[in-house]
Amino acid sequence: MSDDLSASNTLLEVNNLSVHFPVTKRRLFGSDTQMLRAVDDVSFVIHRGETVGLVGESGSGKTTVGRAMLRAIDPTSGEVLFNTAAPDAAQSQVAVHTLSGTALRQFRPRMSLVFQDPYSSLNPRMTVRDIIAEPLVASGLMKDRAQIDARVRDIAARCKLNLEHLRRFPHAFSGGQRQRICIARALVSKPEFVVCDESVSALDVSIQAEIVNLLRDLQDEMGVSFLFIAHDLSVVAQISHRVAVMYVGKFVEYAPTEKLFFSPRHPYTHALLSAIPLADPDANFAPIRLKGEIPNPLTAPSGCRFHTRCPFAKDRCSTDVPEWREVAAEHFTACHFAEEFDFSRPNGNASEIPA
Amino acid sequence: MSRLLSVENLTISFRTDEGTITPVQDVTFAVDKGRTLGLVGESGSGKSVSTKALMRLLPRTASLGADTKMHYTAKDGQVMRIETLSDRSREIRALRGGEMGMIFQEPMASFSPVYTIGNQIIEAIRLHRPMSKREARAFAIDMLDKVGISNAGARIDQYAHELSGGMRQRAMIAVALSAGPALLIADEPTTALDVTIQAQVLDLMRDLQRELGMGMIFITHDLGVIAQVADDVAVMYLGSIVERGPARDVIRAPKHPYTQGLLAALPSLDTLSKRLTPIPGEIPSPNARPSGCPFHTRCAQKIAGLCDRKIPREVVPEPGRAVRCWLYDENGRAVA
Ligand SMILES: Nc1ncnc2c1ncn2[C@@H]1O[C@H](COP(=O)(O)OP(=O)(O)OP(=O)(O)O)[C@@H](O)[C@H]1O
Ligand SMILES: Nc1ncnc2c1ncn2[C@@H]1O[C@H](COP(=O)(O)OP(=O)(O)O)[C@@H](O)[C@H]1O
Ligand code: SF4
Ligand code: SF4
Ligand SMILES: [Mg+2]
Ligand SMILES: [Mg+2]
């Protein structure tokens, strides 16, 4: 990532994004429909060539944010603005949230998704070559077989897949190799933006390390931006330039990785970090004990959504929604008292993120 | 410290369509009262089948090696030779639950969807404790309360699917503990949980163990979890324990190249944005177990002509530690 954080370096701008799902409950007489606010008024920016980590507990809305940005689902409201640099693009800023029909289909190759589970996401009856080529064919981006073959071989080689394996079926491959196939497929159209949803979570540590290294190399070579969704905070810390934390449908904090991990401003981020078991027998493992359970998004708490469990909650927290604001350069958070909190932790020998 | 369980030369084979496979070979470990043994290894290394063998819960296609010894000292002081018991004997059924409790990775699979969790806990209690239904119910509520389920008196009448993942896992722990086991076997009990819930469950298990003085086998692939809960650790690779010893010493100064590789591959918060260091190569499939040292196909320090031919024996580099690797001589000293 370059140090230039100016607008020209912005790839994606997400403004006030919300995704609401209708949920129908059967009643004795008839039924009633409630709105589940899976994502509620989320705003953030992703730079070109940057990896943004997205963490938060199960059900907090991470996958839904990713899917809405890719238009795998339709946002209920808000904007997703995509500054494409593709030479053939008609205009440079595309309002992804307004696209439909042919325009959407033609825009799809600019962005893609790496699935969570490398075991179930590959069609067992397709060869590896056809699996990787599918996004090119489905979008109509390429029609010529020789041209498609050349692109598939190029991307497979970058993903360190054995080219002789392209004719095989996916069942013969190990978890790490399958994940490489998923990554090759996601990158074959040379997208500018890729969502990796729990893409390394199911892998053993050694294979996970390989895949993380591969994603970084591919980013350096191709300049792609990643939204890297994961619940393992240590992996996110390694791969991300910036990290966002979600809680019950809302972003609570977004900051450069080192700031987020070593001087967080939001009590939830602080609690989340205290819960990571470190592979250091002398580290004092004293997770902050949060009261109660994660709220159901159908009945999200009023005011600050964290107030039912926050050790620092005061009266106004249950009534006033805290404003999402920049409390320090590039450091965004939503807590009434963020300016007063200092959750800094000693940061070992953490190195600065290389420019 | 008194010994609760000692396992020697545990070998497990399965008959399969492609012939016999032996995913666990010559495994030796012990658990003392009041201590936690962490069993760590990549998926497929044989952690789950090893602990299923302890409860005699392996499928019929499985068989134990001739030298396998699994000796368990029951609460009444009697030594049970588990390898000699049959899968359905009265003795093994008395051991399961009452002496040895088990927590599984997927709590949903361990609860029946048609009975309330209360019904199921009460049944587990009455199987092992002489109590009336009413007494057992009071005891069950007490257990749910102990594992941190708020409003236990109402929760007890709910079904498993009505609880969140973290609550279900804690209810599962309540079931396992309500029979009063002396040894608790937990197979990846927190792998499916969020970090904050995982922290709650780990906290809880540490407290309960301290309070009840149980021995515990804690299976995980997460060395961070091991560092925080285990007193001792055994590292498994392809069905063999390659290194064991006090968790602190093994993590601080690993002796075996595989343990060293696992620790080096971990992402750490101390070194943001550093390149990670994977172990080279891939884990071989269980029906193509390498000759000699099972790790030789990936080991940077392998000694050609030796490591690929002869299985290393277990040696003792320091009192309380053991390692299986040709880099150490008979006395456990590093061969220069
Ligand atoms: N199609 C849908 N219909 C109704 N509710 C949905 C739908 N998809 C997601 N939700 C709900 O929206 C909320 C956010 O879900 P999402 O999958 O984005 O969470 P997540 O943060 O990715 O969780 P996990 O870590 O478990 O993957 C959850 O409460 C979920 O149940
Ligand atoms: N019933 C079975 N039949 C044949 N092989 C099995 C059976 N159960 C487990 N295995 C094999 O034993 C090995 C170890 O499995 P397991 O103990 O589940 O690993 P872990 O728990 O360490 O991930 C694997 O290679 C697995 O495929
Ligand atoms: S706004 Fe109040 S409840 Fe919310 S995180 Fe800040 S202190 Fe806690
Ligand atoms: S025995 Fe040889 S191959 Fe095996 S771990 Fe030791 S040095 Fe490496
Ligand atoms: Mg998700
Ligand atoms: Mg297992």
The set of bound ligands, ions and cofactors reads: adenosine-5'-triphosphate, adenosine-5'-diphosphate, iron/sulfur cluster, magnesium ion
CATH topology of chain A: Rossmann fold
Rg measurement of chain B, Å = 21 Å
Question: What structural category do the secondary elements of chain A indicate?
Answer: alpha/beta
The CATH superfamily of chain A turns out to be P-loop containing nucleotide triphosphate hydrolases
Helix segment tally of chain B:
11
Q: Which stretches of chain A of 5+ consecutive residues score pLDDT under 50?
A: 1-5, 349-355
Order of strands, widest sheet of chain A: 6-7-8-3-9-10-12-11
- Estimate the helix proportion of chain B, in percent: 25-40%
> Given the C-alpha coordinates, what overall shape of chain A results?
globular
Quick tags:
heterodimer, A: 355 residues, alpha/beta, Rossmann fold, 9 helices, disordered C terminus, B: 336 residues, 8-stranded mixed β-sheet, 5-stranded antiparallel β-sheet, 11 helices, 30% helix, globular, binds adenosine-5'-triphosphate, binds iron/sulfur cluster, ATP binding (chain A), ABC_transp_ATP-bind (chain A)
Describe this structure in words.
The complex is a heterodimer of chains A (355) and B (336). By secondary structure, chain A is an alpha/beta fold. Chain A has a single domain, classed as 3-Layer(aba) Sandwich (Rossmann fold). Helix content of chain A is 26%, strand content 23%. Chain A has helices spanning 62-69, 101-107, 128-139, 145-158, 175-187, 205-222, 233-239, 257-262, 267-274, and strands spanning 10-26, 31-47, 51-55, 77-83, 93-95, 111-114, 193-197, 225-229, 242-247, 250-256, 325-328, 331-333. In chain A, strands 6-7-8-3-9-10-12-11 form an 8-stranded mixed sheet, sandwiched between helices. In chain A, strands 2-1-4-5 form a 4-stranded antiparallel sheet. Chain A is globular. Chain A starts with 9 loop residues before the first strand and ends in a 22-residue tail after the last strand. Mean pLDDT of chain A is 90; it is low at 1-5 and 349-355. Among the domains of chain B are: 113-175, no CATH class; 254-324, no CATH class. In chain B, strands 7-8-9-3-10-11-13-12 form an 8-stranded mixed sheet, with helices on both faces. In chain B, strands 1, 2, 4, 5 and 6 form a 5-stranded antiparallel sheet that branches. The two termini of chain B are 36 Å apart. Chains A and B meet through α6, α7, α8 and α9 of A and α7, α8, α9, α10 and α11 of B. One iron/sulfur cluster is lined by residues 266-267, 304, 306-307, 310, 312-313, 317, 322, 335-337 of chain A. Chain A: This is ABC transporter ATP-binding protein.
